[in-house]
Amino acid sequence: MAQFFKAKPNRSKQLSPKLTLDVEQLDHLGAGIAQHQGKVVFVPGALPGERARVQLTEQKKNYARARLLAIETPTPARTVPPCPHYQACGGCDLQHMALAAQREHKQAALTSVMAKFAGASSDLLATPLEGEGWHYRRRARLATWYDKPSKTLTLGFRAASSSQVVAISQCLVLAEPLSALIAPFSLLLNRLAGRSTLGHLELIQADNGLFAVLRITKALKDQDKQQLSEFAGQQGIHLLLQDNDGQFEYLSAGRPMPHYALLDGGVCLSFTPGNFVQVNEEINRRMVEQALDWLAPEPGERILDLFCGVGNFSAPLAAKGAEVVGVEGVPEMVTQARSNAAANELANLTFFHGDLSADLSGEAWMGKIDKLLLDPARAGAFESLQWLKKMKPRSVVYVSCNPASLARDTGVLLAQGYKLQKLGLIDMFPQTHHIEAMALFELTR
């Protein structure tokens, strides 16, 4: 029997029917959650209490994802995003939600996960650390994309879940002096002969001025460098080039390093562009002050600060008179932290380099301590906490940027005889889904 070829339908191009769903809550990434035919449906852009018109874009066994088409019944928490780039830019994801509602959501999400996995109760909650909702970022990295046919360079942020660079002229969460540099920089970079070899642009607002770091993949010609130098003078900024080896070349007068102060100017910390520092200056200052209050350092105590960076917590702790040991996994940051200790004349502050996910039993700094501070990345501090029995701190302050890993690690602390005493929300990143928190644990046995 003859058989005839019949093309299979292209299912990837088939669109699902339009649905009307009731949104119940937000997930940890700020997307709305609804239910349809026994499945959880994630709807970015929708808010709890809203009825939304959506179209399914992906279906799995237990969940589905949908594109928001329209809000049929809005919630009072919905607001009009003021940023003209909001619908395309992937930098913020909650501008459509009033700031007060954002913070209520973050507090509820933190409390829920800590109650579920760590047995935390609402009576342990501290007053949230909240600040300005706009123009709070003192640092940002803008991406570039060069289009060969038009020979133009796009400067901006990447779209959500995409490598596409969205051109922006301003950023409403970036410090205003930095936001004002974006459009002029875009014009300048497009005048350079070597614009096709440019990488990202990092903008920094420090206590000692504005800094811009331009990543280059090939050496620029003198004419391009001259244009950049003149621009730096006109804008009153410190401008640096960074090559493939991570080396810096200053195109403006002097060679200052960006720095910021803590403890009302009692501690000053320098940092190298590209290394991690908290981007929200106001909240970082208050966060450090709260950590000092909760940990209550005293002269004669030995305090260990793991994931210490350039000394954001270590130096203020040492300034209170305690003997402080900071440990960091990035060698360059350890070098800078040591320089900061010397510059602040903190002889009671010592820094070590170490892989905090590895076996720590043979480390020179490992041993009995009085108090412990942890400020890990999103993955948390699970491996480091396996050495609690050897360290035996009376108090532990855990600063977290991921409630899920904090809840998991809280289980380790509870099993080792610690009790959760305080839990506080830190709204480090308004207009985004990101949740930071601080927890205090005390040894009870």
TrEMBL record:
GO MF entry, a single one: RNA binding
Pfam families in UniProt: TRAM, tRNA_U5-meth_tr
CDD domains reported in the protein's UniProt record: AdoMet_MTases
TRAM domain segment(s): 12-70
Keywords of this entry: 4Fe-4S, Iron, Iron-sulfur, Metal-binding, Methyltransferase, rRNA processing, S-adenosyl-L-methionine, Transferase
Gene3D superfamilies: 2.40.50.1070, Nucleic acid-binding proteins, Vaccinia Virus protein VP39
Source species, domain of life: Bacteria
Role noted for this protein: Catalyzes the formation of 5-methyl-uridine at position 1939 (m5U1939) in 23S rRNA.
Name used for this protein in its record: 23S rRNA (uracil(1939)-C(5))-methyltransferase RlmD
Source organism (scientific name): Shewanella salipaludis
Gene designation: rlmD
